Amino acid sequence: MSTYTLTYFNGRGRGELTRLILVSAAVQFEDVRVTWPDDWPGTAQADSPLGQLPYLTIDGIKITQSLAIARLVAKRFNLAGSDDLEQAKTDAVVDTITDLQNAFYLVAFKDEPDALIAKFIAEDANTHLERIEKIVTLYGTEGYSVGSSLKWSDLHLFDITSTFLALDVNILDKYPRIQAVRRTVESNDKIQAYLKDRPETSF
Amino acid sequence: MPSHKLNYFNLRGRGEIIRLIFAAAGAEFTDNRIEFDQWPALKADAPLGQLPYLTIDDSTHIPQSMAIARYVARETGLAGKNNLQQAQADAIVDTIMEPVNYYWSNIFKIQDANEKAEAFKAFLVDQGAKGAKNVEKLIGLYGSNGYSVGDSLTWADLAVYDVASALLSKHPEFSDKFPVLAAVYKNVLANEKLANYVKNRPETPF
C-alpha cells in the first residue's frame, strides 16, 4: 500500500480538499502543517518541487498543484466518478467551484482586504454561486453534485462555501442544491469526526 | 466512441488545447466555431452561459475547458498511462495555466494598446518567465527525451505547444531561454497529424 504525506500550511486554503478526500476515504496520511516563519520559507520551501504548497508525496514521488493532487487521491479512492464521463462532470463542477475560490483569493490575500471582501460578497460571489447551483442541478441529484454518491466535488463545494457562510450567514439562502450537498458532507461520520478535531485556523 | 462536438469561438484561446488533443490522436469531432454576432442567441444553450463546452452524443454537455481537455485526453489515450502519470500531466498543465490565467484576467482586458503592450512586456519577464521555469522543473522531474511526462505524448506536451506557439511567433528568443520547453515544442510538431492540423487551421488573432 502507498504512503501519503500532504505538505501544506497550517490552514485550509488549497490543502483542505485533499485532507477531506483522504479523511472521507479513511486513508492514513501524514498531515504535515508548515508554519511560518519557522519552517517557511527555509527548508520547507527548498523541499517543495516548485517552491509552493501544497504538494503530495506518494512513495517518495512529489506531485504539485492542489487539484492534480486532489484528483489523484479521489480517483484512487473512488471519489472521482465511475467512468470517464462522470469524471468529466465532476471535474467541471470542481473547476466551477475553483473559479469562485480563485476569484475570492485575488481579493482576500491583499493587504487591506476587508472592503474588497465585502464588495466581493455583495457583487461577485452570487454570479459564481449561481453557476455552481446550475451545474450541480444539471449533473447531480438531491444532496450530490454529480450522480447519487459522494464525490470530491461535494467535498470541494462544502470546503469553499464554508468560507463564505462565515462571512455572510445568508449567502446560500437562494441555493437549495448547494445547501443539500453541504448537508450530505456534514452528516458523513468520518467528516464529522475530522471537523470536530481539526485545528481552528485563520484561512 | 461517442460523438463529440466542441463549441467555442472562432479563436484559439481556451478551446485550442481541446482541438490539439483531437488532432494529435486523429480522433473525429465537430469543430463548431461560433462567431461573436451569433453568440448572444446561442448563450442559453451553454450549460453555464460560457464557452467552450463539449457536446457528447448530442445529449450531454460539459463546460470548463480543462475538464473537457482532460476527458478528451483520457478518451484518446493522451492523458498519461496510469493515475500517477495522469496526476503529473495535470500538475504540468495547471502550472502552465497559472501565468496563462493571469494573462487572461489582468493583461488581456486592458483597453489602451500602449498600456497593454507595456503590461505584457512586464508579464513576460515576471510571471511568464517564472511559469516557464516552473514547467521546465516539473518536466525535468516527470518527463524524458522531449516528453513532459514519461516517455510518450500526453496532453501536457500539447499544452506546452499551445502556449509556446503563441509566444514563439512573436518572441523567437524565448526558445533559447527555455530549452526544455523548446524540445517539447519540437517533439509535438514531429507528430504528423498535429503538424497537419496546425498547417490548415484558421488564422485567428488569438
UniProtKB/TrEMBL annotation, chain A:
<dbReference type="InterPro" id="IPR040079">
    <property type="entry name" value="Glutathione_S-Trfase"/>
</dbReference>
<dbReference type="InterPro" id="IPR004045">
    <property type="entry name" value="Glutathione_S-Trfase_N"/>
</dbReference>
<comment type="similarity">
    <text>Belongs to the GST superfamily.</text>
</comment>
<protein>
    <recommendedName>
        <fullName>glutathione transferase</fullName>
        <ecNumber>2.5.1.18</ecNumber>
    </recommendedName>
</protein>
<dbReference type="Pfam" id="PF14497">
    <property type="entry name" value="GST_C_3"/>
</dbReference>
<dbReference type="Pfam" id="PF02798">
    <property type="entry name" value="GST_N"/>
</dbReference>
<dbReference type="InterPro" id="IPR004046">
    <property type="entry name" value="GST_C"/>
</dbReference>
<keyword id="KW-0808">Transferase</keyword>
<dbReference type="InterPro" id="IPR036282">
    <property type="entry name" value="Glutathione-S-Trfase_C_sf"/>
</dbReference>
<feature type="domain" description="GST N-terminal">
    <location>
        <begin position="2"/>
        <end position="81"/>
    </location>
</feature>
<dbReference type="GO" id="GO:0006749">
    <property type="term" value="P:glutathione metabolic process"/>
</dbReference>
<dbReference type="InterPro" id="IPR036249">
    <property type="entry name" value="Thioredoxin-like_sf"/>
</dbReference>
<feature type="domain" description="GST C-terminal">
    <location>
        <begin position="83"/>
        <end position="203"/>
    </location>
</feature>
<keyword id="KW-0273">Eye lens protein</keyword>
<dbReference type="InterPro" id="IPR050213">
    <property type="entry name" value="GST_superfamily"/>
</dbReference>
<dbReference type="InterPro" id="IPR010987">
    <property type="entry name" value="Glutathione-S-Trfase_C-like"/>
</dbReference>
<dbReference type="GO" id="GO:0004364">
    <property type="term" value="F:glutathione transferase activity"/>
</dbReference>
<dbReference type="GO" id="GO:0005212">
    <property type="term" value="F:structural constituent of eye lens"/>
</dbReference>
UniProtKB/TrEMBL annotation, chain B:
<dbReference type="GO" id="GO:0006749">
    <property type="term" value="P:glutathione metabolic process"/>
</dbReference>
<protein>
    <recommendedName>
        <fullName>glutathione transferase</fullName>
        <ecNumber>2.5.1.18</ecNumber>
    </recommendedName>
</protein>
<dbReference type="GO" id="GO:0004364">
    <property type="term" value="F:glutathione transferase activity"/>
</dbReference>
<dbReference type="Pfam" id="PF02798">
    <property type="entry name" value="GST_N"/>
</dbReference>
<dbReference type="InterPro" id="IPR010987">
    <property type="entry name" value="Glutathione-S-Trfase_C-like"/>
</dbReference>
<dbReference type="Pfam" id="PF14497">
    <property type="entry name" value="GST_C_3"/>
</dbReference>
<dbReference type="InterPro" id="IPR036282">
    <property type="entry name" value="Glutathione-S-Trfase_C_sf"/>
</dbReference>
<dbReference type="InterPro" id="IPR036249">
    <property type="entry name" value="Thioredoxin-like_sf"/>
</dbReference>
<comment type="function">
    <text>S-crystallins are structural components of squids and octopi eye lens. Contains relatively little if any GST activity.</text>
</comment>
<feature type="domain" description="GST C-terminal">
    <location>
        <begin position="82"/>
        <end position="206"/>
    </location>
</feature>
<dbReference type="InterPro" id="IPR004046">
    <property type="entry name" value="GST_C"/>
</dbReference>
<keyword id="KW-0808">Transferase</keyword>
<dbReference type="InterPro" id="IPR050213">
    <property type="entry name" value="GST_superfamily"/>
</dbReference>
<dbReference type="InterPro" id="IPR040079">
    <property type="entry name" value="Glutathione_S-Trfase"/>
</dbReference>
<dbReference type="InterPro" id="IPR004045">
    <property type="entry name" value="Glutathione_S-Trfase_N"/>
</dbReference>
<feature type="domain" description="GST N-terminal">
    <location>
        <begin position="2"/>
        <end position="80"/>
    </location>
</feature>
